[in-house]
Amino acid sequence: MRSLTAALALLLASSCQGFVAPSHNSHQIITTTTPSSTQLKKQPLSRLSVATDINAVGAPGTADLPWSELGFEFRPTKSHLRMTYRDGKWQEPEMVESPYINVHIGATALHYGQACFEGLKAFAHEDGSVNLFRPDENAKRINRSGHRVMMPEIPVETFIKACNDVVKDNVAYVPPYGSGGALYLRPLLFGSGPRIGLQPAEEYTFIVMVIPVGDYYKGGLAAPVNGLIVDDYDRAAPKGVGAAKVAGNYAADLIPNMAAKKKGFPICLYLDAATHTLVEEFSTSNFIGIDNENKKYITPKSDSVLPSITNKSLQTLAKDEGMTVEQRDIEVAELSTFDEVIACGTAVVVTPIGSLTRFDGNGEESKYQFTEDVGETTRRLYDTVRNIQNGEIEDTHNWNYKVE
């Protein structure tokens, strides 16, 4: 695991020097101080109990919450982090206790959809430490998304420190080790300055909110679900914003998603908008096809697909196992060759897909059938990534960042 010391050292030399704290009158601000280099020094993992943990972060799981009953839904916590970009630079970050934010009625996020977000998690380990999973990748991705809709870059070091600090301030809400839960972080960047006319704002707001969540599916890994191949709607256009995690991408899925659920399909699979012959991705998850006989892990390669950090992690683990990983076009007809199909993303890690159904213009259906139970490769990949996140096996790829 890596310490945040190096990241903070870079931060001090970054463009964030010379912050001027913005003025806020509508919310309570918590004064924080930057830890010294001694405090941030990486501590070795130990088998100490939570009560005797030598970290200054505090003990996770001490909030009065029903840890065994958490689902994936909003719950109030102590604070969120807020930072404003104005006059060409990022201002000093603040911890804010109020869950409300005043937004100008002319904000570009409201009128022109100038907004993007991320999702990542922090996990409690048995030694009492708390660790973020791959926040550097989320930092890179939010900047790619922001660039696509003309928003300012957040230095990677600044992003990681923001995640570190908001977790530290809300450490009591990190589900305890063994509960199966995690603290879900939702970084959000949006245009908060007014523009009436299509152009980028002059002011932006970056927030990181946190929510304690349980396993997306009770027990950690659900039985396979049945999916619907969508033909009446498209998720993203070629050369559009499908590869960016912008807010509007998810609004486009609301009608088809709700319609599919009414038909008994809890998940939708979208095809390429140009030809409707190529697999792209599920509503909020990347697509993975598993060919166990040939030890292949196959996922679409498309400029309209959001690059999933979970997918990237699973690809690495699949290669570690000796599987061949292919990122390429996947014809719809090729679905019949897969032993297992997986939807993957931060919230759930993996969702096994039992079947995919497609209706033609006359209402006739064709069905691609996969496993009736969780596939062996799906379960193995899921168990490996969760064990890394929980600190139960060696983190050979240095994906965990210890909160300090």
Automatic annotation (TrEMBL):
GO terms for molecular function: branched-chain-amino-acid transaminase activity. The keyword NADP does not apply. GO terms for biological process: branched-chain amino acid metabolic process. Its EC number is 2.6.1.42. Residues 1-18 form the signal peptide. Its cofactor is pyridoxal 5'-phosphate. Transmembrane segments: none annotated. It holds the Pfam family Aminotran_4. The keyword Aminoacyl-tRNA synthetase does not apply. Keywords: Aminotransferase, Pyridoxal phosphate, Signal, Transferase. CDD domains: BCAT_beta_family. The modification N6-(pyridoxal phosphate)lysine is found at K245. InterPro entries: Aminotrans_IV (IPR001544), Aminotransferase-like (IPR036038), B_amino_transII (IPR005786), BCAT-like_C (IPR043132), BCAT-like_N (IPR043131), BCAT_family (IPR033939). Belongs to the class-IV pyridoxal-phosphate-dependent aminotransferase family. This is Branched-chain-amino-acid aminotransferase.
